[in-house]
Design brief:
The protein has 358 residues and is an alpha/beta fold. It has a domain of 226 residues: Rossmann fold. The chain is built from nine helices and ten strands. It has a five-stranded parallel beta sheet, sandwiched between helices.
Length: 358
């Protein structure tokens, strides 16, 4: 009797993937933790992470937001100014090193750098370049906004029961002199590019994992002072790169990036008791799905894809822990197109139409 004789159906491709009515995803995930509707859930990461918080809220779960918008601000204005996009007004956190940087600010391990970008009499935050679409009116206003955002991010760690982070990129841009990281290449969303100051790198497995471990350790250190435990759920964004700064074809660059991120997320879930991995990436991007869940641009995920991801999330919770009383649905499910997502990276596509030789 060899080990494969005792394996369940989910272990065999022919029994759960290559079947007539499409892949059976009912046992795709074996969750470590039972998420209850009253649990407070913080969500950050790449553009795809925005779907998670909205889906939780639509289902009646407690999506924690620690930086509320001004009273009376419209939904459209909230998205434009970065409110209710993530749990705090951080903008997209694409890399594990950028997450570590934000946690270090929140934990008081490092001060937010003093760098500021200026254009047309307005001030832009290098670490949240699209938070104020037209920039801040004064340096004082920018600094106050930064302080509020860092404090709100700290609260999203201190108050949460679950911290959901969606890994998006391995490519990053840093300040060569001081070592800190930007969420976007300077000169794209705002600022000016300086080849002597701004440095590109493409992280590998060890770097990505090291930054993530350091970020989680710092978050847990913050929680020890307040009590309670913080459970981390990692996901990987299925959204391909808009563009790459490497010499690779963007398809090869995307495959490299997602492969590294998926490997890191899986290793973290295996290594740490209070870290889990939810396979949203596989649901959207695996070969059996084809391009079913992608829009015509083969990049943005359809609403049907997002719904499938979240349905698998909740169904696997029920299968593992049993049905519970349905949470009170506070809102109708939010139908959002790709254009509704706040995603600085998409700005890179504007450079694809540059004149030849530029």
């Amino acid at each position: 009797m060899h080990p494969y004789r005792q394996q369940p159906d989910k272990a065999f491709w022919s029994k759960t993937v290559a079947i007539q009515n499409g892949p059976d995803l009912s046992q795709l995930w074996e969750p470590k933790f039972h998420m209850h509707p009253e649990n407070r859930v913080s969500a950050f990461g790449s553009c795809f992470a925005q779907h998670f918080g909205r889906a939780l809220e639509a289902k009646g779960y407690n999506w924690l937001r620690t930086e509320p918008p001004p009273v009376g601000m419209s939904d459209t204005a909230q998205r434009a100014f970065g409110y209710n996009v993530f749990s705090a007004r951080t903008g997209n956190i694409y890399t594990t090193s950028l997450l570590r940087q934000w946690v270090s600010w929140a934990a008081g391990k490092q001060e937010m750098p003093e760098e500021v970008w200026q254009a047309n009499g307005r001030y832009f935050d290098p670490f949240r370049p699209r938070i104020e679409p037209d920039g801040f009116a004064s340096l004082k206003e920018l600094r106050q906004s930064q302080e509020v955002a860092v404090a709100a991010f700290a609260r999203s760690i201190l108050r949460a029961d679950f911290f959901v982070f969606t890994l998006g990129l391995t490519e990053r841009w840093t300040n060569r002199k001081h070592g800190y990281e930007y969420p976007m290449c300077p000169g794209t969303a705002a600022g000016k590019f300086d080849e002597n100051l701004h440095e590109f790198s493409n992280m590998g497995f060890i770097q990505v994992q090291k930054n993530l471990i350091e970020a989680i350790k710092m978050m847990r250190g913050m929680r020890k002072k307040r009590g309670g435990s913080l459970k981390v759920i990692l996901t990987v964004s299925p959204v391909p790169l808009v563009a790459t700064a490497t010499t690779q074809h963007v398809l090869a660059a995307t495959t490299y990036s997602k492969s590294v991120l998926r490997a890191v997320a899986g290793s973290m879930a295996q290594r740490f008791e209070k870290v889990d991995y939810f396979p949203s990436y596989e649901i959207i991007s695996s070969a059996p799905m084809g391009a079913e869940y992608f829009e015509d641009d083969l990049r943005n995920v359809k609403e049907a894809g997002v719904s499938r991801v979240m349905q698998v999330f909740f169904d696997c919770q029920v299968r593992k822990f049993g049905a519970q009383s349905e949470p009170v649905q506070t809102k109708e499910p939010i139908e959002k197109s790709a254009s509704d997502l706040v995603c600085e990276e998409i700005l890179l596509d504007a450079f694809s139409g540059r004149p030849a030789g530029d």
